[in-house]
Amino acid sequence: MTGLKEVRKQKGYNQEFVARKLNISREALSYYENAKREPSFATLNAMSRFFNVSIDYLINGKEFTKH
């Protein structure tokens, strides 16, 4: 989830702050950022709303484009 870490840093948020806002552990967020665990769809959706980016951006680090 390359976009997750990127958008968190762009916003100037630390992992603890984001984890509290999303009601997950800091460790879980770290695992998601480092591709050691995959979040549920509900968690992805919550992250997308929190950061105001698409789920595609959270996963790939770029917005979805049609070819």
- Helix share bin: 55-70%
Low-confidence stretches: none
**End-to-end Cα distance:** 22 Å
Biggest sheet overview: none
The overall average pLDDT, rounded, is 92
The percentage of residues in β strands lies in under 5%
Report the structural category.
Answer: mainly alpha
- Total beta strand runs: 0
The rounded Rg comes to 11 Å
Basic shape: globular
Order of helices and strands: HHHHH
By DSSP (H or I, 4+ residues per run), the number of helices equals 5
Task: Please characterize this protein's 3D structure.
- Helix content is 64%, strand content 0%.
- The chain is built from five helices and no strands.
- It has helices at 2-11, 15-22, 26-33, 41-51, 55-60.
- Helix 2 packs across helix 3 (26-33).
- With 67 residues, it is mainly alpha-helical.
- The chain is globular.
Short synopsis of the structure:
The protein has helices at 2-11, 15-22, 26-33, 41-51, 55-60.
SSE blueprint and pairings:
Elements: H1 2-11, H2 15-22, H3 26-33, H4 41-51, H5 55-60
Helix pairs in contact: 2-3
Structural descriptors:
single chain; 67 residues; mainly alpha; 5 helices; 64% helix; 0% strand; globular
